[in-house]
Amino acid sequence: MNILDKILFLKQKEIFINKEFYPIKKLEKFLFFERKCISLIKKIKKTKTGIIAEFKCKSPSKGIINKNVLVEKVVKDYESAGASGISILTERYFFYGKNEDFIKSRSIVSTPLLRKDFILDEYQIIESKSMGADVILLIAEILSKKQIKNFASLAESIDLEVIIEIHKENEIDKITGNKNIIVGINNRNLRTFIVNPEHCLKLSSKISNHHIKIAESGISDNIQKIVFLQKQGFKGFLIGEHFMKTNDPGKSCKNMIEALKVIQEQ
């Protein structure tokens, strides 16, 4: 059983338990469920940098990335740095994510928040809304075309935007036509967790420019590479490990955004 299969097995068990403790009718009564979502799409369109900064303490391939930082400080610093959005891992077993970290963050920042998890059930979409998410991630590798279409429609009906994440060319056909869609091209193979930073370029030209395209994984401090990807049509960049492996993720994020702005003004 590879890493992805293990994650999905445990996720199914977790969903079953959560449905018992927090049924949908209960989730719909949570305070954040009625809030107006903040558009990541609009934020990305307004900025020239498009950085989506991620809070991630651990990964299956790298182990512990950073166990000394507080989510409250990191997300506030990301917001102050000018991040277009903030991604927060909520998968608990392999990424040490917590729903509580997401809820804490929602209470203190006004930046669009992406709930990054392995969504397999409509229940998780309602759950995401109740936690204060603005955006959810739908991974084409683990969902059928019909599931993505249905999940995206449900998300749109409750004001959530969607990132459809693809890694292979045969997954492009799963991209739904819904209006609030961002296409994320993941440089990481989710079954082996091997990263190829050039991978996103292979798929970018095959995806309609009707969608906002973002690059995920393997985006380091090579500012010139980010500028190059922008010229290839990428509007956003999901970056986590590069920031989180430092003592001050917020400062690292700020330095990258400022460096990008300097280059773009030249």
Question: How is this structure best described in words?
Answer:
- The chain has helices at residues 3-21, 24-27, 40-46, 71-81, 92-95, 99-108, 122-131, 145-157, 199-204, 223-231, 241-244, 249-265; strands spanning 51-55, 58-59, 63-64, 85-89, 113-116, 135-139, 161-166, 181-186, 212-216, 234-239.
- By secondary structure, it is α/β, with parallel strands linked by helices.
- The strands form 2 sheets. An 8-stranded parallel barrel has the order 1-4-5-6-7-8-9-10, surrounded by 5 helices. The chain has a two-stranded antiparallel ribbon with strand order 2-3.
- The relative contact order is 0.16.
Helical fraction equals: 40-55%
Which residue ranges are poorly predicted, with pLDDT under 50 across at least 5 consecutive positions?
Answer: none
Report the strand count: 10
Straight-line distance between termini = 50 Å
